[in-house]
Specification:
L-homoserine binds at residue 226. By secondary structure, the chain is an alpha/beta fold. It is built from 15 helices and 13 strands. The protein has helices at 34-54, 76-81, 93-101, 117-120, 123-128, 139-142, 145-158, 175-183, 197-205, 212-221, 230-233, 236-248, 273-278, 284-296, 356-373, and strands spanning 23-30, 56-64, 68-71, 89-90, 108-112, 132-134, 162-163, 188-194, 258-260, 300-308, 311-319, 332-339, 347-352. The strands form two sheets. It has a seven-stranded mixed sheet, sandwiched between helices. A six-stranded mixed sheet has the order 9-11-10-8-12-13. A hairpin with a 2-residue loop joins strand 10 (300-308) and strand 11 (311-319). Helix 1 (34-54) packs across helix 15 (356-373) and helix 9 (197-205) crosses helix 10. It is globular, with a radius of gyration of 24 Å. The structure holds 1,4-dihydronicotinamide adenine dinucleotide (NAI) and the ligand N[C@@H](CC=O)C(=O)O. The ligand N[C@@H](CC=O)C(=O)O is lined by residues 170, 196-198, 224-226, 232, 237, 353-354. Residues 170, 196-198, 224-226, 232, 237, 353-354 line the site of the ligand N[C@@H](CC=O)C(=O)O.
Length: 381
């Protein structure tokens, strides 16, 4: 077999493709904690591929935590001027956003990887100014309804996008799955599930051989918990996720509407996060008693969330050992959507529901969705 190779000047040789200028998107990351740092790593690793395959340049312009911000943090010249150290200045979210947006007309996306209401308070202003927002922070979508509506109005008026897939199920496709069901005419009837990676992991591991407090410390070190693990143990983090799903389905639910049965003793509810972590042993005896009671009843402990219309409840339950929730592994979340179409058998999304890397990937994918809406093609070739 011979393979014909066209000579250099043959008309069969494809003309060199005219270089098309890449789409440059300015990016700012708020909250370089566990998720934010994983996102920064993923952005750096994927930059060459996005440039070569998608003609997309995600240009990191700035990073801010609660106290410092780094502008042009990838600028070698700027870093060089301070002997290789990153140059920082006191955090100022307005200055930060304006710097990320720049004045050259490039689209800008802010990735909020904090768990802060202060940052969520800025979304409406950013969106109104045409700055896109992607986030795993649940505060906006589950916080005060009035703020959430203002955010929606701002995005609607400017056309800027807000994506928050990472808020429920971390890297699992939960919010978009529900959106797709509803946008194609389905109706949500009920949601039942395990919506906390931390609590799933804790109850998978808690067999009495290790104190509950030691497991909580381990979950915190693994990056599964919220910055303040009381948000997980109190059930509030799961309540937030239920509120997000309810609002997605058009139900104007608020956190106060959710019946929350938590695990945090009243006397530890108000202390500082550090003091709480030091007092964790206080959970050991009550949790050992719960485990013993569940075993005596022939069941296992699981943290379960339920939404049915406006009725929403979260808490620890004793469930049968052959129930599907009893067989979820590690940090698995299980989200069962009962809808008008999926009525005989619910649509189930299941998989790891916590961890910095999977969560960062959800934020990254949201960022690529924003770029996709600007015409960037995502393909494997
Ligand atoms: N860790 C996980 O598995 C998942 C986390 N999430 C969400 O991701 C977010 C981040 O979680 P982690 O990285 O684990 O927390 P973290 O505590 O490691 O990081 C939080 C970061 O936010 C920064 N921050 C706090 N207030 C700020 C402010 N006012 N302005 C600027 N920065 C501020 C902190 O300085 C820190 O860098 C949270 O909203 C969490 O609910 C969502 C799904 C899963
Ligand atoms: N702390 C949360 C993280 C994801 O939202 C959890 O454990 O589910």
């Amino acid at each position: 077999m011979s393979i014909a190779i066209a000579p250099p000047h043959s008309p069969l040789r494809a003309a060199p493709r005219r270089a098309v200028a890449p789409l440059v998107v300015h990016v700012g990351v708020v909250g370089p904690g566990k998720v934010g740092t994983a996102l920064l790593t993923q952005l750096r690793l994927m930059a060459p591929r996005l440039a070569s395959h998608c003609n997309l340049e995600l240009r990191l312009r700035a990073v801010s935590d609660s106290r410092h911000m780094w502008l042009d943090c990838d600028d070698e010249a700027l870093n060089g001027r301070s002997h290789g150290a990153q140059t920082w200045r006191p955090a100022d979210l307005d200055e930060f956003a304006a710097y990320v947006a720049g004045d050259g007309g490039e689209p800008a996306v802010l990735a909020d990887c904090s768990a802060s209401d202060v940052v969520a308070d800025r979304y409406a202003g950013w969106l109104a100014a045409g700055i896109h927002v992607v986030t795993p922070n649940k505060r906006a979508a589950s916080g005060p309804l009035e703020r959430w509506r203002r955010i929606g109005v701002a995005a609607g008026a400017s056309g800027a996008r807000l994506h928050y897939e990472g808020t429920v199920g971390a890297g699992l496709p939960v919010v978009q799955t529900l959106r797709d069901l509803l946008d194609t005419g389905d109706e949500l009837v009920a949601v039942e599930g395990m919506l906390s990676g931390t609590l799933a992991w804790l109850f998978n591991r808690f067999d009495g051989s290790t104190p509950f407090s030691a497991l909580v410390r381990e979950a915190h070190a693994l990056g599964y918990t919220e910055p303040d693990p009381r948000d997980d143990l109190s059930g509030m983090d799961v309540a937030r996720k239920l509120v997000i799903l309810a609002r997605e389905a058009g139900v104007a639910l608020s956190l106060e509407d959710v019946e929350v049965r938590g695990l945090v003793p009243d006397d530890l509810a108000a202390c500082s996060p550090d003091a709480f972590m030091e007092s964790l042993d206080a959970l050991d005896a009550p949790m050992a008693a719960r485990l013993a009671a569940a075993r005596a009843a022939g069941g296992v402990l699981r943290h379960v969330a339920r939404l049915d219309g406006r009725r929403a409840a979260v808490g620890v339950e004793t469930i049968e050992p052959d129930h599907a929730f009893a067989h979820a592994r590690l940090t698995d979340n299980v989200i069962r959507f009962a809808t008008r179409r999926y009525c005989d058998n619910a649509l189930v999304v299941q998989g790891p529901g916590a961890g910095p890397e999977v969560t960062a990937a959800a934020v990254f994918a949201d960022l690529l969705r924003v770029a996709g809406a600007m015409g960037v093609k995502r393909c494997a070739c």
